Amino acid sequence: MEEHGRSGRPRSERARTAVLNAVDDLLVEVGYAALTMKGIAERAGVGRQTVYRWWSNKAEVLYEASAIDARKELSVPLSGDPAQDFTAYLDALVKFLAHSDAGAAYRALLGEAQHDTAVAALLSSGDILGESAAKVVEPALDASGSQLSVEQATALLVGPPFFHILSGRSVQSIDTRRLAEEFTRVLAVRRNGDRGLTADS
Q1: What pTM value is reported for the model?
Q2: Which of 71, 145, 164, 173 has the fewest Cβ atoms within 10 angstroms?
Q3: Residue 121 belongs to what domain range?
């Protein structure tokens, strides 16, 4: 199978996959600062100009690799039990952010975005975590009648473990089941609107 890059030329799927695999591996070995397009090309076994034909810089390569892997790693089957589904998603999210190469790439881009406006714009062009969380949240929102928007709900679900991991705290202290149960209660509270009712009322 062949795809077309930014230049409109056909590109080899095998070479593209090699580049995307190489950038994850190389990032883990050398870190973001030492990562170069030349190094990525050499690791992938392709010419540097081949890489530049598809991506403008290392951030673009990392972003695409991270996004592709995130779609796979953050995809969880829905059971119909919201609390169970939220727990499964949060388990996958913690594993992605804290333990996977793709998660390391995403964290590296987040760090770089704090002082590089081009990387910040790249990250804002899509919502890697929000898109995956929405697939779990939307059915529960529809069933609960919550007044929260999908964007608000996904932020509430993803936010606690995301902040916990990015602030350098121990992953072992993240209780995904408790977070899922609390999120389920939030949906119930917001369903009751401004009446201030709790899930147990």
Answers
A1: 0.83
A2: 173
A3: 69-188
